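Illustration 12: PhoH family protein.
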Amino acid sequence: MPLPKPPTQKASLLGPRDFEAQAAPRALKRGTATTDEASAPPALLDPAPLAADADLGARPPRAPSRSPRSRSAARPEGLDPAPTVPPQAVPAPVHAGNPAIETPPRTAVREQRPATEPARARPRRLAGGPAKLFVLDTNVLMHDPTSLFRFEEHDILLPMITLEELDGHKKGMSEVSRNVRQVSRELDALVAAMGHGAFDSAAGIPLAKTGHREAGGKLFFQTKLLEVKLPQGLPQGKADNQILGVVQHLVEAHPTREVVLVSKDINMRVKARALGLAAEDYTNDKTLEDGDLLYTGVLALPADFWDRHGKTMESWQQGGATYYRIAGPMVPVLLVNQFVYLETPGAAPLYAKVTEITGKTAVLRTLKDYTHAKNSVWGVTARNREQNFALNLLMDPDCDFITLAGTAGTGKTLMTLAAGLSQVLDERRYSEIIVTRVTVPLGEDIGFLPGTEEEKMGPWMGALDDNLEFLARNDSGAGEWGRAATNDLVRSKIKVKSLNFMRGRTFMNKFLLIDEAQNLTPKQMKALITRAGPGTKIVCLGNLAQIDTPYLTEGSSGLTYVVDRFKGWPHSGHVTLARGERSRLADFASDVL
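Figure caption equivalent — predicted structure in token form:
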């Protein structure tokens, strides 16, 4: 179809005859026409794209439904029809360099686009929205004095009753009192960093003022007396209820901001949720969310282990042990001092320990069999696979830090005492054994205990006496006088110490046994382990199912903390003992009770 002649004048219009010769315009899709194009005068639209569109169309030209006269009669005289063309149908102007023809600006449609579009406004609101406001309960600060700096970019508010409770617990030598004093020093440093003048309480104090760059929020204090109506069943004078009143006031005063109460008290959180307030536990101190994810120190090899790793394997013998250098898909999941085993029917079992990991290769060393009577340690032999692994760790001079976890009756204390006595009395590797534990009672406290430090610790060391009595009975050929002499010698090499007097000490060439380590906090565990001097071995024993310390859980216990932090270190090891060997009654009670 021939094209019409190009216009000779600027902004000239097509005539009716030329318009009838073109193909019918394409039907517009619903919603594509804009108000700018519909209301624009015809002189602003370029006629050249219309001709190009007619030439490119594959459909034959259709006859117009009504005559040009009827269409022109509905319009004012002097205006020719100009069809509305969708923006996506307009090609690039081929005559952009012709000064006689003006191209309509393409930005006209964009400039009048609505400013608020849901697809773009939602991420902007999330990125630039207000940070959360956390209201801290007193027990959170008592539990973790650095909790002020653990909330990233979010803000923190401290009610005045929280500061009052901190002031009431600052005196004393307990761990709680030391934490309170540390919190007071942190708060004093933050206030002092704002200058000598009174700071603006409404603007808050940046938590990063004292060098804690991980804290990007601000600290606020309650400075006004709030009149909040709580349910009648809640007494207004109680500290917990006053904190709940502060949270409720903040929720009403800041409806667009998320206000959350953080408390270690379960009842406090229950009351807050009953009132419709958001409440959470303080979880930053938890090493693991689930106790089942704790590193066990033992890994079962798959049945096709030798098929997948035996082609490039190297093996040699040294010092009575066999070494295997392997390379394969199992190497990335192995850790140094981790125990591996492979038990297949009809084949000799493999019990080994990972001694070295270099790049994509790992070295396995077979273990000493402590299940045999010839390798017994002070008359104690391993009764299961995990006990054999534990004795290999306890008797290894290269392991300076060992953790043993397991339920009651798995033999943790007995094996540790036997290994300690063997290395103190027989091998002369250590000078003496130091035993300590946390003095947290199972029931009601019996009150003041008279005597020296060891006499005061005597009631807490019943497990030590029971195991020493069992070890002394194994020496049946010595007679009664011989067993008495041995018992005196053993007790002269064992010292019982209290945790309260450990700070500042240094143990050199000692075998340190920490019993009931699950009741220690991570800070207390750090204070104990850093007491170790040259030639000292530390063994931590504990059962994560028997935590008696308030506000401690399996995830936040000091035992869980050190197991997770020390895994993979070449001079440490961990074993989780799975099967009890105390008696069939104790084993059954552990399973069903």
